[in-house]
Each structure stands twice: as structure tokens, then as C-alpha cells.
Amino acid sequence: MPEAPQNSEQLTxxxxxxxxxxxxxxxxxxxxxxxxxxxxxxxxxxxQNANVEYLQRHGLNGHTDRESFKKLMPVIKxxxxxxxxxxxxxxxxxxILCSSAISEFLTSSGTSGGERKLMxxxxxxxxxxxxxxxxxMPVMSQFVPGLEKGKGMYFLFIKSEAKTxxxxxxxxxxxxYYKSSHFKERPYDPYTNYTSPNxxxxxxxxxxxxxxxLLCGLCQNKEVLRVGAVFASGFIRAIRFLEKHWAxxxxxxxxxTLNPQITDPSVREAVxxxxxxxxxxxxxxxxxxxxxxxxxxxxxxxxNTKYVDVIVTGTMSQYIPTLxxxxxxxxxxxxxxxxxxxxFGVNLDxxxxxxxxxxxxxxxxxxxxxxxxxRNNGVTDSLPAPKSLSxxxxxxxxxxxxxxxGQEYELIVTTxxxxxxxxxxxxxxxxxxxxxxxxxxxxxRKNVVLxxxxxxxxxxxxxxxxxxxxxxxVPFDATVTEYTSYADTSTIPGHYVLFWELNLKGSTPIxxxxxxxxxxxxxxxxxxxxxxxxxxxKSIGPLEIKIVEPGTFDKLMDYAISLGASINxxxxxxxxxxxxxxxxxxxxxxxxxxxxxxxxxxxxxxQWNKPELxxx
Length: 616
Ligand code: AMP
Known about the structure:
Elements: H1 13-32, H2 34-48, H3 53-57, H4 66-72, H5 78-89, E1 104-112, E2 115-121, H6 125-143, E3 151-155, E4 162-163, E5 169-171, H7 173-179, H8 181-184, H9 198-201, H10 206-219, E6 224-231, H11 232-255, H12 265-272, H13 279-289, H14 297-301, E7 307-311, H15 320-327, E8 332-333, E9 336-338, E10 343-346, E11 359-361, E12 367-372, H16 391-395, E13 398-399, E14 408-414, E15 422-434, E16 437-445, H17 459-470, E17 478-488, E18 495-504, H18 512-525, H19 528-535, E19 544-548, H20 552-562, H21 579-586, E20 589-594, H22 611-615
Parallel strand pairs: 1-5, 3-6, 6-7, 7-8, 18-19
Antiparallel strand pairs: 1-2, 4-5, 9-10, 10-11, 11-16, 12-13, 12-14, 14-15, 15-16, 17-18, 19-20
Helix pairs in contact: 1-6, 10-11, 11-13, 17-18
The protein binds adenosine monophosphate.
The site of adenosine monophosphate has 17 residues, from strand 1, strand 9, strand 15 and strand 16.
């Protein structure tokens, strides 16, 4: 297998160029020898784990070849290995899925039974993740030279973590990465030179973390050459924060003293190393922000910014207009495609349009297989939940180098940390090839109808939430005859909107508080990622119910039919995105109601928390 690029210590201009070259050569090599690399990856995974219970259960018996693997191992989804995962979570340290010790669980934003999925991981995976990160800037430097001469202003955050009953940590993959020595103790590298000191990123209080990161970003505004966050939604929240708090930030910059609300001693110490009284800079920022015109704010306050580094593929594409507005159309760059299960790919043409982004899957990360899918281009762009595959379908799985241009596939991976033929749930389209390796557009996540931030709400969850909500209408002899939903990102943070058409049989008018209770009941029914977004991350705003005039959904059907939908097969879409449909719905609003408070949420899984804790 081609050798991964190594980290070198002191980087001069010359050896930076050499290091970049080595990295690009690594990409050349792994993509050119993709099939051999994949074969080696599979053999390594299977031989390292030959003794694990899961492989023995399926009779693999030490075989490490593709044929035996494909013949004997089933294609699975999370629920198939949940009993094994629960055993690990409860403290069983025997080799169940992986022979290496499980170091922690990564909590995916994908959920099962309303709770985050738990992905077991092992120490060495951190190296693989670091490797993928190390590919990004050498690729970028081919398109935007000179990035080593300045800094990146990235808004990076950690999320809460919990312990499983067996004592393993459970936390999101990025929290795990930022807290690891790979991030905290990274050797000096001009490409990981950020305006945010580590302490500000590692602060668990979201206000203190955001405030101090913005303050440090403003203090070093001239040095900033690129800005970003992981997802577009996070970056927009940071700009929104600036809109609200610029006066306070300016005061700190003018006086060189730090807002007393920043109480974390390590954050204070780190910020004070950067913050110096700078009345000129304060005047400049105040001059810009006090105009209250936020268009192009990025280029105004950080004038040397070359691009905005955020993921805007998949559901995040809904934020492109807002980002364009704030950045005066700077390039939006999506650099990588990754998940809690494994990190997958990099964008080798980072300045391309967001709609054309494709990710080159790096063959040394895991063993990839692809299940062909046929998508009927529905209103929601989503697919039904994955069902178990028949024997025949399992045989249809295609290897990395055998995928066809233009075809859509569901991604299936076998990882070093113990997932075998695991359905990630993402649908990709092959848009081209880098040597032997497909470059894939991210199409959608299976079965997701609504998403604002990292939340992913599916149709079944929405349906169940609706059932719980409409109970509140029973005393008024009212029913919801039709409904649909929409992820409204025109507010910051964005929020879910439900359009309801009612059938009112009773004569008592329904007070607003009842609809507010309905909104809250829906939020209470959603999965823990949604509720965490509302409560802890504040990345999702209160859910809104909009009551529409009687007959609105008939009009919606008429409209769909006028566009060619079959009258016999017409079903109300449970989520709408198409602008004319939204216009139609919004033109017939009778009243609207917001959820009056946050739903309940506590860190960790429901079953790990004592009942009293759930009541908090
Ligand atoms: P998580 O398991 O919470 O880390 O979320 C991983 C999921 O986020 C992936 O399976 C994708 O559905 C989505 N995702 C990650 N990277 C991208 C990307 N570059 N574009 C679109 N969706 C992405």
C-alpha cells in the first residue's frame, strides 16, 4: 500500500512545497492502485480481526479474501449489530466486533430509536482521520497559493459527552478529534494555524467558546486568509452572533480587557495572549457593524479572505444564498466527506461550484462497496429507510473500481474498527474518476425529510410526532386533515415549520396555547439530536405550526397534477422544498404558533440516564 505522508517538523517554504508534493503523490498512488489497496485493506481488517466473535459467528473462519467475505458476510444496518454494540456499551471487553480495544464510542447524528447511533472506534482510527485532514491543504494550495502566509478563522466547537454504563466515553467524532493529542498537540504547521486558540475550541460553554473565537478572529483580522466551520449552519450562527454582540466585542478590543462573562480561566488566559488594546481596530469594526448592513461582512471585516470553507453539499445546500450574501460571493469550498463510521473522501477540485462538488474516496480509509439504487425524483429528494437486502441484492454490490459513471449507489463500508458491510445510509452519484477511484457527488441521506443542522428527521419520526401532537386537539373535536413540513433556514437559527389543514367539528375555538402545546409535543417526540440542537447547541429555533385555510392541500394537489403528477398516485408530500409550492402554502396561512419552550434533553442515551434525570 502507498505510504502515507509523514509530518515533518520545522517547515520552510522549500520543504512545505516538498511535503505538499509528497501528499499529492500519495493521492496519485492510492487512486492509481485502488484495487490493490482495497484488497490489502480488506485482508488487513479481516486478518487483524480473525478471532472476533462477529466474524466467527458468520463462519468466516480466518478467510481474508474478497470471495469468502462477500459470500459469508451479510450486508447490515445499525439495528443488526445493536445487540453487540449494547454489550460493548455495558462493559463487555471481549473481542466482539474488533480485536483492538474499543477506545470510545462516536455518537453519530444518525439515530436509531430516537437515540444517536453508537459507533465503536479504536485508537488507531485517529491516525486515519488525521491522514485525511492532512490531504486537504496540499490539495487546496494548488488552487490558492500563499495560504501558509496567514491564518484560518475556523469556528470549531465541542459537544457534550457521556459515559456508557460500561465506562466508555460516548461523544461526537469531532469532539473526540479536537480533544485528542492529534489536534491539541499538533506540531506547528502553517496550514493548521488558526485564529482560535485550542482552549477556546475546547470550552464546553457555547457562549464563551463562540465569543472568544470571534474576538480572537477579529483581533487577527488582517492575518485571516480563509474562514469556515464544519457545516454551513455553524458558520452562519457565528456571523449571527457577531450581529448581536459586536458592540461588546469592540469594547474588549478597544480596552484590551475581556468580557467578564468569559469566566473559564484557561479561555481567559489564552485570549489575553492575543487581545491588546487596539482603538483603531475597534473603530474600524464599529464603523462597519454599526451600519447594520451585513451583506459582504466577511470581506469587510476580514479583507484578505480568499474563500469560505464549509460543507454546503447535501442538506446544507439550503444555506448557500445566505453564505453568498455574507461573503459577497467568495468561493464556498467543501473539502471533505466523512462520518462517525469512517472518514471517506476529499474534494480534489475545491474551487468548483457547490453543485458540482465531488469527493474522491480515499481507498486506504476502509473497504468500500456500492449498492446500486434507483431514485424516483420525489419532492423531498429522500429515499425510504433501508430494508434488509435479499441474497440477490447482496450479490449486486459493486467494488470501488467497478462503479459506473452516472450511476447512484448507497455506500457500504467495512472499517478497521469493526463494521463489516455496514450501510452508512448515504446515496452517492459517480461524477467522474481520479485514476481508478470514483469521484462522488453527495446526493442525499436515505430517508431524511428535515434537517437544519446535524439533525436528521425522517418521515416516520415526523408521523409519530404528529400523532402525539394531535392528541391535544381531541378535546376540541378537531383533527388535522393534511400536513406537510419545511426546514425554514431564512431565520437564524433555522427552524422546522409544519403546515396544518384542520377539520373543526367542535364549536369551541381552539386557544393559541393548545397549538403551542402541539408544537412542543412534536419537538418532545423528535430524536435526541434534534432536541440537543434546540437545548444545548441552540442550532435549531422553536418549531412553528402554520394553520392554512381549508382547501389548501387540494390546491397543492391541483398544482402537482398541473405539473404532470398522476392523479391516482398523488400523495401529499410530507416535506416541501419547491419554491412555488411553499409560496402557495404561505399565501394561505390563517395563523401560526411557535413552540413556547425547549423540549427535554439530557446528554447520553435514554437508557443510561436514571428516570429522575430525565425529568430535569
Ligand atoms: P455523523 O455520523 O454525525 O458524523 O454524520 C455523517 C453524515 O454527515 C454522513 O454520513 C453524511 O450523511 C453527512 N455528511 C458528511 N460529510 C458530508 C458532506 N461533505 N456533504 C454532505 N453530507 C455530508
